[in-house]
Design the sequence.
């Protein structure tokens, strides 16, 4: 009897356990006199040079449904990715302008720049350790194993600021429980 061969995606994780988060929370900076923003994981040194770069505040996990990006983990084992959805209301408004969306993962950052509010959904492909998944459910149910805990998504809405959301936080396990 010949066993059917199993095909695995080149991006599928081979990790046997959830990877550790081995980095600091990112900081975003704007160069003085420039319209240039950059991210740093070890950005504390930059705060010593206020004449070069200024730190940008992040509104993290705010109850601002318009600015804070929404996400869904999709693709199962072989095509693991994070889909980020932006607000229709803000994208269709003349007074709001999204510049970029950033996904922070176990191993680094992924940035996507958005031209003239042109995209409502953004797909961030995951590979290697970042693609680790306990099960193959598509979409992810964000069960108690919290495979993507430590990930975060950030959106820069120009003059309105940077809004972020933790992905699959452990606090969501207890959100529906009563004391």
Sequence:
């Amino acid at each position: 009897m010949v066993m059917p061969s199993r095909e695995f995606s080149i991006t599928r994780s081979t990790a046997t356990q959830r990877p550790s988060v081995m980095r600091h929370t990112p900081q975003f900076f704007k160069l003085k006199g420039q319209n240039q923003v950059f991210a740093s994981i070890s950005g504390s040194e930059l705060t010593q040079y206020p004449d070069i770069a200024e730190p940008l505040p992040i509104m993290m996990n705010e109850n601002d449904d318009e600015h804070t990006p929404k996400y869904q983990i999709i693709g199962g084992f072989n095509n693991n990715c994070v889909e980020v959805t932006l607000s229709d209301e803000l994208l269709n408004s003349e007074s709001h302008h999204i510049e970029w969306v950033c996904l922070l993962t176990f191993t680094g950052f992924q940035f996507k720049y958005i031209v003239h509010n042109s995209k409502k959904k953004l797909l961030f492909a995951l590979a290697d350790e970042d693609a680790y998944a306990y099960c193959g459910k598509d979409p992810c149910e964000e069960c108690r194993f919290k495979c993507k805990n430590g990930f975060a998504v950030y959106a820069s809405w120009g003059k309105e600021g940077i809004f972020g959301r933790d992905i699959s936080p452990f606090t969501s396990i207890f959100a529906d429980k009563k004391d």
Observations:
- Residues 110 and 133 are 19 Å apart (CA to CA).
- The longest strand covers residues 27-31.
- The first helix runs from residue 88 to 91.
